[in-house]
Amino acid sequence: MTIDVTAERVLPLPPERVAAYAMDWRHDAEWTQGIRTAELTREADTGGFGTGAEVTRTAYFLGRRIDYVLRVAAYEPPGLLDMVSVAGPMPMHVTYTFEPHPRGTLARIRVRGGGGGLYRMAAPLLARQVRGSLVKDLRDLEARLTGQD
Prior knowledge:
The protein is α+β, with helices and mostly antiparallel strands. It is built from 4 helices and 7 strands. The chain has a 7-stranded antiparallel β-sheet with strand order 1-7-6-5-4-3-2. It is globular, with a radius of gyration of 15 Å.
């Protein structure tokens, strides 16, 4: 993978509350940078959202529209949501984790992605942009959940 970026933040809420909101694809556009729409386009084998489900997201990054599909590789609420891209402009692996912390929840987002060619050449810039977006995502998540927005 060309980029591997992680951001984390302690939110003053229990992991169950943070994860219930953050792991619900219907909230993606409310707190995740650049995402305009998210749609459950394939249900999990057991129905609804879970391992095997697919969410199609439309996002804007660096001024460009990006449509991509993330398949849920692991879904273990309230601790873990792991997704891999199955369609889109570049390979991507997105992992959300929520761990108990003395002040609430340690929320972490890790994004790995990229490929060859242009993505490899732009990796340093892309990594900075992704990290900035993830930091803002976690700040927006906290603001949404604590009513500070």
